């Protein structure tokens, strides 16, 4: 059937009737494939009749990328004229640098637009029209920080939101204030939240009306400066958090002001979710460990990833040390991102734990480590082999004879 895709007006009445006689589900599949090949052709088809227009919109507006502030202004104008299109949008990504917003603010307003490009309330208003939005990715200048934050204050316009990523570009690469968007943690339907380069002081969620349990399953704090007490406060809100990731670079810039220097404080902050968490990743090299971690309460945890072995066992000290650590009861994978053996006493404790695996960590199957400059010690390799523990060495040569006996 020839549709004359390059010119929708060239389709005969008979062809239009044959096309629209197909079930909506079949037409959607055809239009999705056409949209992958040529969005221009799909736009042409959308002009065939009301049915094609409705189904084409569902594809054309399903995922929107705002690469410039001009685009979000003109698109806002379009939605204000046709708000029905807002319900067809399921994914939005806003990503443009501060320089573009500054330039637009200095230039003349966009022709025909009543919206102010230097203010974020227009952007918030546009997003609120997207009633079926499921994924929101924000990477814009911090001048938009407060206005976008009001979008999460409730009552919730984004009633179907499931995934959100927030990053606001600040001068001198500073951390943006998470308190301006703090209500994102109270969003009832949100399942996955990524926060990049934000800071949060010790006030936590200090609002009189605390939200009911939320649907948050995954929380990623990427290069953030987060107070551990505030994190503990926020983690009381999810009904059942399953995955937690917190990362930081070896030499944070600017220097951290709110973060604790003890990994144990963050494990303590996670305890309200201990019965639900399945995976914990703390790739935060500057954190120390004063005492061995006690994680027996994390009864669902199968994967634990840390930067250093001493974050798990605590640093050497003059006081007597217990030769044990409270590993999660059903842990299967333990991974260290940095070299083992930088602390002799910690290395001895790790060896003891491996040797007692069948007693204190019966479900432990795999330990993942990096090769490091000096490699992995023969004692660790032999202990893992004797205990039936799989040792994965990242960076080791496949032909390494030390690791070929499993």
UniProtKB/TrEMBL annotation:
Q: The F-box domain covers which part of the protein?
A: 20-66
Q: What is this protein called?
A: F-box domain-containing protein
> What InterPro entries does the record point to?
F-box-like_dom_sf (IPR036047), F-box_dom (IPR001810), LRR_dom_sf (IPR032675)
Indicate the transmembrane segments per the record.
none
Pfam families per the UniProt record, alphabetical: F-box-like (PF12937)
* Chain segments annotated as coiled-coil in the UniProt record: none
Q: Which organism is it from?
A: Cucurbitaria berberidis CBS 394.84
């Amino acid at each position: 059937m020839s549709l004359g895709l390059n010119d929708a007006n060239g389709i005969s009445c008979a062809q239009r009737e044959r096309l629209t006689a197909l079930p909506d589900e079949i037409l959607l599949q055809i239009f999705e494939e056409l949209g992958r090949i040529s969005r221009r052709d799909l736009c042409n088809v959308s002009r065939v009749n009301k049915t094609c227009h409705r189904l084409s919109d569902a594809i054309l507006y399903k995922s929107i990328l705002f690469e410039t502030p001009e685009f979000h202004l003109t698109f806002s104008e379009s939605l204000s004229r046709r708000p029905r299109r807002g319900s067809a949008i399921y994914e939005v990504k806003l990503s443009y640098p501060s320089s573009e917003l500054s330039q637009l603010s200095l230039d003349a307003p966009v022709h025909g637009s009543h919206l102010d490009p230097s203010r974020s309330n227009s952007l918030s208003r546009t997003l609120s029209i997207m009633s079926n939005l499921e994924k929101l990715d924000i990477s814009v200048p911090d001048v938009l920080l407060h206005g976008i934050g009001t979008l999460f204050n409730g009552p919730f316009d984004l009633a179907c939101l499931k995934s959100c990523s927030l990053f606001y570009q600040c001068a001198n690469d500073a951390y943006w204030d998470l308190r301006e968007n703090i209500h994102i943690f109270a969003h009832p339907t949100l399942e996955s939240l990524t926060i990049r380069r934000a800071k949060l002081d010790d006030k936590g969620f200090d609002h009189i009306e605390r939200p009911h349990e939320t649907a948050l399953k995954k929380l990623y704090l990427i290069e953030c400066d987060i107070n551990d007490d505030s994190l503990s406060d926020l983690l009381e809100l999810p009904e059942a958090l399953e995955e937690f990731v917190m990362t930081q670079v070896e030499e944070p810039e600017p220097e951290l002001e709110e973060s604790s220097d003890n990994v144990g404080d963050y494990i303590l902050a996670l305890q309200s979710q201990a019965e639900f968490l399945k995976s914990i990743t703390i790739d935060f090299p500057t954190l120390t460990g004063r005492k061995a971690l006690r994680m027996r309460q994390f009864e669902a945890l199968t994967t634990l990833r840390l930067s250093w072995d001493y974050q798990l066992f605590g640093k050497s000290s003059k006081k007597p040390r217990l030769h044990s650590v409270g590993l999660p009861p059903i842990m299967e994978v333990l991974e260290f991102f940095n070299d083992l053996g930088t602390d002799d006493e910690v290395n001895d404790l790790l060896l003891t734990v491996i040797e007692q695996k069948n007693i204190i960590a019966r479900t432990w199957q795999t330990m993942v480590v990096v090769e490091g400059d000096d490699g992995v010690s023969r004692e660790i390799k032999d202990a893992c082999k004797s205990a039936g523990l799989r040792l994965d060495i990242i960076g080791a040569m496949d032909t390494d004879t030390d690791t070929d006996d499993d």
